[in-house]
């Protein structure tokens, strides 16, 4: 083959690749396909497993009570209530004798009564990330990590959002907020747990849902504030995510487009689900800072691993910056805050560091670990300790902590 033929073949192949890439971008401008990429809800990862049988993921018999709850717009969501291990041990004989499977009336289950009837019980409301179901990947080990700091008191309730797993409906920004509100409503009204004994936990897109949730509830005429918020591997907003996100941690889907900011900005105009997490978190902090006559304090922990190849940890820097800015009467640039962080951050050895910003109204922490990837970190002690610290911020654990 002559050099000229090679040249033309190369140009032809390159043209096909470029055309194919922009064809894919055109498809992603369609909301249906956007949702498939943002939420990955069609990728269940548990195709041959029944989420009403949690023992498949290593839980003890009836340590998890599967149940369903209804949202305000009548969508049915699949949920799990996970008992902490020490509490399970204390009631093991009774729990083993109970019928298993999906509960039609969760209030009749012993696990629910152990949560509802104990005035010292604590509850983590768990908002998981994109793709999969309640039982996918590192989520089951993560549920166990939630209660590690107080294994006799910290319960966890997780849901599959609409469109995920066996839950009904299709995901959307508005819909997932409705799902999270349904979970909070169930926790407060049916389980009888006041917000002061609840921690909101979110990972990946669950942090976006969580930020939207806490902002919404803090803005109500009767504001709702929780014991704490723990966000793991958050993203600042979808627009920033499009420039940095890597599918499966390897494929930079919009990386080539990110080299042309105006072109990327034009494409972002077509994105329906914006998930402005940094603005939502900042608005929540601002609402808390401006509350008068309120002795409740907010407690926010942001955790990210440096080796997270799905969502770079620079997103957590952005989240922390926007939250801190919301506490200050004078503005501060990102660069100025980074300089402050260098002076105040505390090294936790070769693997991590933490920086903390405190006001009379609350605390904002950013904790960065060297290892943990995007999902594995959810089961690490750094997360268990963050949950424990959030509950301690409301002095709910006393001597047990």
UniProtKB/TrEMBL annotation:
It holds the Pfam family Abhydrolase_6. Residues 124-279 form the AB hydrolase-1 domain. The keyword Coiled coil does not apply. The keyword Iron-sulfur does not apply. The chain crosses the membrane at residues 12-33. Keywords: Membrane, Transmembrane, Transmembrane helix. It comes from the Eukaryota. InterPro entries: AB_hydrolase_1 (IPR000073), AB_hydrolase_fold (IPR029058). This is AB hydrolase-1 domain-containing protein.
